[in-house]
Amino acid sequence: MSWVSISRYLTLTIFIAVLLFKAGCTADSKNNHSESVYMRFYKRFQTILDTPGMRPSSTWREPTHINLSINIKEIIGVDEKTHILITFIAVRQLWFNEFLVWDPNEFDGLDHVTVPVEFIWTPDFYIYEFVGEDLSPFTPYLSLHHDGKVIHDKPIRAVTSCNLDIFYFPFDTHSCILTFGLYLHTVNDVGLGLLLPSEQLLKDSLQSLGNRGEWELLNITGNPVPFHSRTENWAMCVFTVKIRRRPIMYLIKLVIPSALLVLLDIMSFFLPIHSVDRCAFKVTLLLGYSMFLLMMNNILPNNSGGTPLIGGYFLVCMALLVASLLESIFISNVLHRKSLQDREVPGWVRTLVLHKLAQLICYKKKVSNKQQDEENIYTIHINKTENPVWKTSSQTPTSMEMRLLTFLKRTCEDVQVMRDTLKKFQARKKSSKEWMEVSYVLDILLFLLYILFIAVTSVCLCVLWSHWYRV
């Protein structure tokens, strides 16, 4: 007696013991069956149960039709780097075994029974897209009904390949395919069909999933498709699973903090342009945003097939912070370096900035009532007398008068030097005011362009991300 026969005998013994134990536990139930009923059932179909490799068909020319349905219990995760979808699904297989048909009245109303899977023929299904290790739990039993209907529910932890498009991350939608086929049997042996319509598949899966996890299920469609190879035709059943990411976590962790940093940079334009704190503040923001990108590097998907749109969003935010810092540096250069070199505002700059650009941005120059007085405050009028008093007299000036005359000449020369210095200071102050006006106009103009660019970029991103809702 071989080990296979001994193992099979022990399995049958355990099977009968399980049935008897079940009957004993349900002694008060409506479907209670005695030991003799199960013994008669086993003796009736012993030949069929002893030949589990035989396909349930009276003739080999007629194929066995199998109907499939899937129920997605959990979407475990999606790996964007390796294009892998991990799901936990329950697969129901239904077919008819014409050799296992009986009248329930002959067995005291026994209309169905649970038997081990190794006792009868089962199809050799597998998933074409399966790429990982099979960690699915093993189900040792299946249900057998009196009309020959066989139902086999099998849980599968499916690790399948899926072509992921992460361009709209985190507002991305993916369509993954699960292709169920047979390894040995062709269409001449086994035919495939759908057990439930696509609407019912989606409804059952949504009830199992609920409202949890990062991913939500949008749709499930099933379609039996024959596969033609060079020599044989194979039956396949293709299920298309459409899922969408819930982006709320990524909005809180990525999009909103980045937008707040840009908002702080916008508010920094209201700092005085002649203050050094503006540049220091913008440099601090730039360093903080760089650290933010380093921390978020592990969250962003790294896909060789393309760059997600959110990567462009972060790049634009970084470019805006850099451009804002460059703008502050440019304005500081115009405000300080030009004025310190005692350079007057060129005529073309005065015409272009203080007139045309100022009118474009509706900038009005403040005119003070004391401006004219401040311009003439350093103006000193010195009347030079051609004929001194002593020249009109016939007397010859004394030594005291000569010393006084020399003192007055020196005093006049010193006053003239002071007058020239004050005029230069007045001209420099006027030039500084003009350069400051130029700086104000350029700062306001660049600020408006900055706001305009942010608005256009935000609208474009919103339009692109709104494609997420077009499912």
Automatic annotation (TrEMBL):
Domain Neurotransmitter-gated ion-channel transmembrane: 254-459
Limits of the Neurotransmitter-gated ion-channel ligand-binding domain: 53-247
SUPFAM superfamilies, per the entry: Neurotransmitter-gated ion-channel transmembrane pore, Nicotinic receptor ligand binding domain-like
Matching InterPro entries: LGIC_TM_5-HT3, Neur_chan_lig-bd, Neur_chan_lig-bd_sf, Neur_channel, Neuro-gated_channel_TM_sf, Neuro_actylchol_rec, Neurotrans-gated_channel_TM, Neurotransmitter_ion_chnl_CS
Topology with respect to the bilayer: Multi-pass membrane protein
Transmembrane stretches, start-end: 248-271, 283-300, 312-335, 438-468
One Gene Ontology cellular component annotation held by this UniProt entry: postsynaptic membrane
Pfam families cross-referenced by the UniProt entry: Neur_chan_LBD, Neur_chan_memb
GO molecular function: extracellular ligand-gated monoatomic ion channel activity; transmembrane signaling receptor activity
Record keywords: Cell membrane, Disulfide bond, Glycoprotein, Ion channel, Ion transport, Ligand-gated ion channel, Membrane, Postsynaptic cell membrane, Receptor, Signal, Synapse, Transmembrane, Transmembrane helix, Transport
Cellular compartment(s): Postsynaptic cell membrane
Signal sequence bounds: 1-27
Family statement drawn from the similarity comment of this UniProt entry: Belongs to the ligand-gated ion channel (TC 1.A.9) family. 5-hydroxytryptamine receptor (TC 1.A.9.2) subfamily. HTR3A sub-subfamily.
Record-given protein name: 5-hydroxytryptamine receptor 3A
Species, as recorded: Acipenser oxyrinchus oxyrinchus
